[in-house]
């Protein structure tokens, strides 16, 4: 069955009824046939295909056995009387896409909008698209600018492959163009042109007619389609090409999109860590679209639909409540990914205690545990024997580790799988569904398998590691003899999953590993610059430790690690014992890490920084801005920002930044609104306060009254008055007092020349 299908409670009855119907069909086959043809049952895309045989009399009264059941009506007639077909769970919450520019370098004195004055953004949003809008405005239209190709980037399980399939269907159904889908993992060191002509075309023609041979004329017709610019080349999984580095993978794509291939319009999918490996991407001619994560509303919508279909709406409400608890903040972040949210719903549905795991490793462990309950009737020996499951998991972990450690990574040859697992356990893994046949090697026709999902391969690979030296074995005098997987991108998720394992026997190992990361010395010499206190690899090891403590809950150094990340991100050197500004490469990476480390501790460290009397003007504003990124729903973050907003010791711009962050983490906060209203009513009134109220004061009557009064005041400048009008546009729609004040403003001379583009529409 395809993944992410939720069957109703009558699954067993339905399966038994279907088997009974098929057996009846088998018994009805002609006795003349020796031996009787076997029934053929398979899932073909989303349809169940059943092939049987039936004897009919022709007009000449001749008995003839014919094949039946290949059409939907045959199957429906077969099972109509005694089968209630289970329905696929129809839970579809489409993700949005954000068009993104490449990362850019900017000078400190560069003129920028005030909203980004202290922010060095790695991601510049051009436009946000909902799913259907993306298809209509991007796929269905000719390229707007110089770039005609499209890159869809995102994390594992973010829906990139699913989206690519949707794009292919859209092109097929809505245009006259030809979509060609290629999984880049299938190339295996071959170039795209060779694969397209020698393998893809042959397989495509067999779908039309099994005995059709590819001739030079057919190849010419394909090339002619490219020449007419009516071909879409859909390339899935740049990160799964098996190249030695992300740079090599992107360079290979760039080298091969030449000649007739360049005439096609290309859409490719790629993981973030590959696409963003360098600031200036080597792959040119692409507009970049990043998949967006589920927001809270989408998560709740998905859970509600999922459990409603399963007939357990009340349990869905319990799951929604659990996700709101502070102790499950990491799980909330985890399930913004569609794959992981689906797994969470499936495992929670089966969990009798109604508890959620704290780490990604615990989530996958729970899914693994309940996975077998779906197969209880088919694999009783496996489901009833912990020894068999342990044996299977041990060999799966060895295979997973071997795959990640090879160039193939996620494509596992049958010979490798059998060598590592043995024939019996390999067959069991295939039968259960952990391993699935994905294709064959063109040269030898050998079968190629893949794990249920790459995330599970990484999870099983983490289960294989019992000694942290598998990730880091530092040999300072001769690094070539050491092991430095901590610096290899393909091992990052494996390391985090290993840190999330909760076995008591691993705690000391995990603690020692974090200690080794924190104290790592790369031996690249002493740094004499005042704004650099570590070597390049030492920083990278420390950043990995900071992310790792999210999974390793028992780390004794967690507080100190987070505080150090804050110091690097905002300018304090422990080595120099004074406030200094670190280079942007260190500062930006530290702030990025702060969003991925243990959030409660990160918020506490930022609050402490915000309240420190030694912090300068710009650092306080930057700390307030960072709280707006990670402090959603956290009472300490909200309180600190409200106090900053109410403080008389900061300027209006700092208050504005506090209001900006509050709008992101707790929109509508009454204390913040009250403080801004008081500021508007003071002699120190500022346009920034009026602007901030337009972001956090929606529907608040005191806010609307204060803005109306400001609009009517003769003691403020035109810009402040216009800012009040702009805020009323956002929060005062339909309010009679707001409308009256704006109407009274219309005859004034000032309204003829607004200080900035735009107008109010209250």
From TrEMBL:
Question: For the NACHT domain, which residue ranges apply?
Answer: 148-271
- Pfam families, sorted: HEAT_2 (PF13646), HEAT_PBS (PF03130), NACHT (PF05729)
Q: Which domain of life is it from?
A: Bacteria
Name the InterPro entries on file. Answer: NACHT_NTPase, PBS_lyase_HEAT
What the entry lists under PROSITE patterns is as follows: NACHT
Q: Which SMART domains match?
A: EZ_HEAT (SM00567)
Give the matching PANTHER family.
SLR5058 PROTEIN
Recorded protein name is Signal transduction protein with Nacht domain
Q: Which organism is it from?
A: Richelia sinica FACHB-800
């Amino acid at each position: 069955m395809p993944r992410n299908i939720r069957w109703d409670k009558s699954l067993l009855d339905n399966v038994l009824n279907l088997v009974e119907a098929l057996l009846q069909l088998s018994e009805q086959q002609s006795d003349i046939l020796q031996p009787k043809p076997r029934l053929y049952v398979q899932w073909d895309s989303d349809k169940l295909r059943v092939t049987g045989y039936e004897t009919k009399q022709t007009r000449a009264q001749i008995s003839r056995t014919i094949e039946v059941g290949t059409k939907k009506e045959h199957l429906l007639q077969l099972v109509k009387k005694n089968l209630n077909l289970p329905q696929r769970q129809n839970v579809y919450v489409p993700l949005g896409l954000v068009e993104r520019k490449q990362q850019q370098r900017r000078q400190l004195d560069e003129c920028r909008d005030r909203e980004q004055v202290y922010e060095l953004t790695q991601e510049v949003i051009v436009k946000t698209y909902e799913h259907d809008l993306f298809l209509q405005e991007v796929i269905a239209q000719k390229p707007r600018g110089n770039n005609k190709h499209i890159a869809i980037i995102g994390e594992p399980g973010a829906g990139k492959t699913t989206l690519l399939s949707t794009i292919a269907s859209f092109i097929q159904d809505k245009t006259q163009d030809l979509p060609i889908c290629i999984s880049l993992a299938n190339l295996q060191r071959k170039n795209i042109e060779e694969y397209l002509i020698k393998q893809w075309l042959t397989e495509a023609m067999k779908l039309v007619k099994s005995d059709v041979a590819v001739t030079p004329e057919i190849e010419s017709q394909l090339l002619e389609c490219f020449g007419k610019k009516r071909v879409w080349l859909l390339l899935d999984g740049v990160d799964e090409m098996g190249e030695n580095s992300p740079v090599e993978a992107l360079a290979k794509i760039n080298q091969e999109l030449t000649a007739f291939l360049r005439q096609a319009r290309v859409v490719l999918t790629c993981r973030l860590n590959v696409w963003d490996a360098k600031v200036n991407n080597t792959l040119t001619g692409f507009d970049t679209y990043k998949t967006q994560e589920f927001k809270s509303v989408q998560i709740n919508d998905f859970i509600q639909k999922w459990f409603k279909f399963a007939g357990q709406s009340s349990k869905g409400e319990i799951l929604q409540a659990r996700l709101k608890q502070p102790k499950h903040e990491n799980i909330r972040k985890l399930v913004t990914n569609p794959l992981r949210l689906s797994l969470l719903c499936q495992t929670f549905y089966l969990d009798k205690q109604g508890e959620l795991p704290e780490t990604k490793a615990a989530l996958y462990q729970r899914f693994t545990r309940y996975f077998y309950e779906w197969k209880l009737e088919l694999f009783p020996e496996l489901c009833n024997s912990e020894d068999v499951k342990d044996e299977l998991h041990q060999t799966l972990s060895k295979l997973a580790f071997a795959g990640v450690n090879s160039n193939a990574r996620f494509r596992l040859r049958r010979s490798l799988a059998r060598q590592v697992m043995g024939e019996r356990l390999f067959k069991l893994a295939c039968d259960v569904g952990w391993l699935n046949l994905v294709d064959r090697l063109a040269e030898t026709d050998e079968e190629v398998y893949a794990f249920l999902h790459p995330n599970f391969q990484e999870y099983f690979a983490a289960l294989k590691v019992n000694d942290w030296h598998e990730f880091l074995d530092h040999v300072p005098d001769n690094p070539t003899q050491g092991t430095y997987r901590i610096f290899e991108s393909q091992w990052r998720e494996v390391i985090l999953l290993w840190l999330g394992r909760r076995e008591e026997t691993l705690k000391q190992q995990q603690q020692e590993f974090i200690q080794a990361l924190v104290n790592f010395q790369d031996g690249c010499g002493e740094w004499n610059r005042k704004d650099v206190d570590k070597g390049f690899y030492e920083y990278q090891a420390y950043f990995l430790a900071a992310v790792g403590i999210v999974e390793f809950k028992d780390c004794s150094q967690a507080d100190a690690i987070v505080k150090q990340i804050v110091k690097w991100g905002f300018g304090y050197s422990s080595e120099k014992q004074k406030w200094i500004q670190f280079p942007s490469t260190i500062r930006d990476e530290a702030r990025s890490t702060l969003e991925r480390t243990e959030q409660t501790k990160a918020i506490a460290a930022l609050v402490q920084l915000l309240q420190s009397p030694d912090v300068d003007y710009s650092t306080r504003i930057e700390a307030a801005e960072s709280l707006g990124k990670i402090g959603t729903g956290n009472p300490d973050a909200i309180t600190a920002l409200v106090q900053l907003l109410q403080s008389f010791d900061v300027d209006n711009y700092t208050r504005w930044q506090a209001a900006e962050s509050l709008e992101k983490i707790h929109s509508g906060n009454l204390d913040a609104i009250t403080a801004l209203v008081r500021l508007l009513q003071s002699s120190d009134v500022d346009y920034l306060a009026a602007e901030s109220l337009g972001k956090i004061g929606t529907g608040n009557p005191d806010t609307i009254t204060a803005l109306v009064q400001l609009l009517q005041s003769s003691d403020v400048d035109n810009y402040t008055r216009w800012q009040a009008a702009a805020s009323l546009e956002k929060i005062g729609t339909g309010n009679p007092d707001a409308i009256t004040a704006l109407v009274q403003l219309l005859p004034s001379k000032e309204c003829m020349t607004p200080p900035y583009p735009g107008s109010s529409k209250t």
